[in-house]
Amino acid sequence: MNIYAFGPIAAALDAASSVVNALSAALAPLAGANAAALAIVLITVLVRIALIPVGLSQARAQRMRLRLAPRLAELRRRHAGDPQRLQRETMALYAAEKASPFAGCLPVLIQAPVLSLIYGLFLLPTINGHPNALLSATLFGAPLGTSFTNALGSGTDAAGVVASAVVLALITAVALLSRWRNLRAAAANAGSAAAPRPGAGSTAALPVDATGAAALAAFGPDGAATRILSWLPLITVVFAAFVPLAASIYLLVTTAWTLGEREVLRRLVV
After folding, report:
1. Which of 142, 145, 206, 240 might form a disulfide with 122, Cβ 3.0–4.6 angstroms?
2. Cα separation of 131 and 135, whole Å?
3. Is the dihedral of CA 80, 85, 88, 93 positive or negative?
4. How many domains in the chain?
5. Residue 114: domain span
6. What is the pLDDT of residues 156-212, one digit of tens each?
7. How far is CA 181 from CA 139, 175, 188, 211, 250, in A?
8. Could you give the C-alpha distances from 6 to 74, 127, 128, 135, 197, in angstroms and in order?
9. Which residue from 138, 154, 156 is spatially nearest to 244, judged by alpha carbons?
10. Residues in Cβ contact with 158 at an 8 Å cutoff, skipping those fewer than 6 apart
11. Which candidate, 253, 33, 242, 46, places its Cα nearest to that of 134?
């Protein structure tokens, strides 16, 4: 079943096509043949600007989770043999603190439809019954509708391979930098949480290595599993290799924005 043929989705895709085409036409004097790619960048930025309040809420939720981390670790220690009791106590703690363990998912959920529309815009030969003019759009000669895997497999789309490889490399760099910054933040929080409090009994500070592995162990029931999960942002790179170049550009801009936004909010939110 083609979900893009469903009436409401086809209408939304048609409207999105009109927006991208209009932006491309407006940007053509500035970007020339790369106008559609620049339009995708602009759309991504506009979406992320609209999501700034959500990002602020997400940063506050993250700060709350870090504050609750020592108490959550104590619950895991106390109820390690009773998973159901652990779940009840954990949810009770979040409820008492007016926090949510699922806070932070909203930006991803909101952007999913936008990314799906961009995916369809640069994949379908027809949109709501009329030819899709966006399939002829390019970025430095690379078709925006061709993925890295398709360009590589064709053996004839050198521009597509190069452009997609550059975008994938940039997404990889952003993902690795984001992982490194998150590990450092977790390490700093773990060291603070493990430091002896005035008047408390003597407690050795948690040793933190350069990779932050010890910090991650302090925040999860399974340190090894948590370290593995810290690599999840790199799944974006794998996904980007299989979607049209236009969608990869969206992923690059939004992941870079997320990294920058978190750095700013980490300093502003207390």
Report:
1. 145
2. 9
3. negative
4. 1
5. 3-268
6. 999 999 999 999 999 999 999 988 887 777 666 655 555 544 444 433 333 333 333
7. 31, 10, 11, 10, 22
8. 50, 11, 9, 21, 60
9. 138
10. none
11. 33
